[in-house]
Amino acid sequence: MIKSQLTFSSYLKTTIKSKLLEALIPEIISYFSKKELSKNDFFVKTGKIPTSFCFVESGVLQHSILVNEEEKTTYFALKNTCTTSLKSFLQEIPSRKNIKALSKCVLWVIEINDFKYLLKNNKAFSQFYFNLIENQIFLIDDYRIDLLTLSPEERYQKLLINEPDLLQKVPLRYLASFLGISTRNMSRIRKNIK
Description:
The protein is α+β, with helices and mostly antiparallel strands. It contains 9 helices and 8 strands. The strands form 2 sheets. Strands 1-8-3-6 form a 4-stranded antiparallel β-sheet. The chain has a 4-stranded antiparallel β-sheet with strand order 2-7-4-5. The mean pLDDT is 93.
């Protein structure tokens, strides 16, 4: 097994959380293939039906939408996470968002038919998917509560604590958009918090 497959395998083990199901992980990995994206390449484009779900081995993928001709960042898929435009992927309908590489990315991708096959026929993959979705719901819930209860300064400080390397990997305008802060306010906050 090559190093990157070991990383993906470790991620699967950590997410599945069941020693009994670990023997099924090699089958899961066999359905994924490696894909590289250059900076600014799209993994998913608005209006197109996504065909792949991915594990991010390295790099950062930005989820964004256009609102009144302005790009708004809704999510960052970081190293050791999984992503796609999930509703569009599963329902095979056009995506409402873009997913773009903010840096060179190495991904492990699976196509929709193989994804559905594993969900139906591999207990480890089913458990992986359940745990993955549950964790994402927790993150979305926390994010929404933070937007309503934390000041822009507090949201930025939380980002510094939880994802400090994002500041080096993601342009300021995307971070500001993700945190619900104007770029000007973000610059002021960064100046005041060091």
